[in-house]
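Input record, target 12 of the design panel.
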């Protein structure tokens, strides 16, 4: 887009295309603004429906995750990203209960989605259909002892578990606690994928000898201070667009090695997303208005 703005002071031949792109760009950020201004969920029918794809969709009949529950506390309350499909909010509560039962600690929950899902102005390309949640890796002793204040939930920082320059786990932040949580989450049937930094996946492959439960743990850029759980399209959500199924193996193979190649670190590899989003499904327009 920057090149587009520059084109107005250099050659003329791309100006028309650039003008169109800029208009689309502004209309897409306008669309994101509309979704972020909505403060309540809305239901088009009697059951909750995730509509469209994880990166281009919305959620009808979302429920709000209570801000505290057994084994978890919700962070960044001011962002109002505590909404999701009831299957997602139920999953988080179940995971928290397991974590509490096994005395692993308290999960700090980051973003789910907006009240009706849809594109956001900041932070995410996915999380649009109420089926994604970010969970911090940080283990907080304070959260284990008491409820965090609203101010703490705004200002506490999610520490990275990966050393910035050496592609190794930061063992000051990483303990067996995080491994236990990932293990429990990966075994829950509604979970389809869990995104973590490639360094974490590589370390888990080593420590657990490429065990089958690692299959759902997927390497992805960033995800060094939180993991991202993606729930499969719920039953009877006919407008929910599924992703291609995962390969059956643990993913501790050549595919993982690619993440540590020179090619993976090129900017072109990181920019896998189109610069302009496609139009949202028609049902989402109905949901917004
Ligand atoms: Zn996420």
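The sequence produced for target 12 reads:
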């Amino acid at each position: 887009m920057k090149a587009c703005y520059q084109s107005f002071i250099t050659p003329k031949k791309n100006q028309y295309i650039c003008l169109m792109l800029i208009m689309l760009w502004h209309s897409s950020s306008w669309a994101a603004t509309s979704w972020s201004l909505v403060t309540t969920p809305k239901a088009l029918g009697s059951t909750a429906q995730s509509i469209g794809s994880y990166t281009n969709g919305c959620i009808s009949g979302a429920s709000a995750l209570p801000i505290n529950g057994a084994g978890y506390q919700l962070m960044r309350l001011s962002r109002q990203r505590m909404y999701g499909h009831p299957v997602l909010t139920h999953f988080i509560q179940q995971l928290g209960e397991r974590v509490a039962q096994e005395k692993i600690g308290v999960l700090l929950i980051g973003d789910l989605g907006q009240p009706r899902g849809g594109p956001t102005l900041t932070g995410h390309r996915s999380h649009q259909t109420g089926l994604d949640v970010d969970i911090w890796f940080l283990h907080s002793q304070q959260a284990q002892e008491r409820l965090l204040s609203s101010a703490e939930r705004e200002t506490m920082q999610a520490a990275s578990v990966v050393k910035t320059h050496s592609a190794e786990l930061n063992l000051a932040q990483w303990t067996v606690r995080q491994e236990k949580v990932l293990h429990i989450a990966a075994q829950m049937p509604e979970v389809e994928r869990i995104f973590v930094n490639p360094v974490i996946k590589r370390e888990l492959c080593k420590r657990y000898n490429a065990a089958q439960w690692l299959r759902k743990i997927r390497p992805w850029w960033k995800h060094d201070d939180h993991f991202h759980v993606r729930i499969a399209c719920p039953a009877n959500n006919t407008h929910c667009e599924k992703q291609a199924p995962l390969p059956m193996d643990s993913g501790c193979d050549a595919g993982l090695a690619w993440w540590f190649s020179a090619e993976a670190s090129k900017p072109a590899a990181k920019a896998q997303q189109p610069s302009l989003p496609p139009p949202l499904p028609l049902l989402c327009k109905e949901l917004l208005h």
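The CA atoms of residues 69 and 93 lie 7 Å apart.
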